[in-house]
Amino acid sequence: PNEAAAAEAAAAAAAAAVMEVPEETLEQLRTVKAALDELEEHMQPFLEASPKDITAQLTPLERVKVHLALAQSVVTLYQLHRRLDAANLDTHPIQKELVRVCGG
After folding, report:
1. Range 76-83 contact pairs with CB under 8 angstroms and sequence separation of 24 or more
2. I need a surface site. Which of 3, 16, 73, 101 has the fewest CB within 10 A?
């Protein structure tokens, strides 16, 4: 048992040394996580209710605004996802969709 624990600790230490991340990057990740947590908090009413229940309470103009905001959110989150995958977005079709949905 002690040998296994020591081997596991050594493997964890080696992995930590290989995966050392600059503090600036860690701070940026914390900022992103905080923003995502805040987004999730604001989206909670939408996540808990059915779309019909939500839109039934809105005027037609409010429905359009909600649908536009959701479309903008989806496109932006997909773009961020692709950037995290280090994809070249200059020629990616998402750029065209971003301009169409978000206006730029």
Report:
1. 76/102
2. 3
Structure tokens at 75: 């496109």
* CB-facing half-sphere around the CA of 68: CA atoms within 13 A: 11
Q: Rounded to whole angstroms, how far apart are CA atoms 98 and 85?
A: 18
Residue among 85, 84, 80 at smallest CA distance from 94 = 80
Q: Are 54 and 46 in contact, with CB atoms under 8 Å apart?
A: yes
pLDDT in tens, 6-43: 777 777 766 666 567 788 888 888 898 898 889 888 88
CA nearest to 81, candidates 9, 22, 32? 32
Q: Tens of pLDDT along 43-52?
A: 888 788 888 8
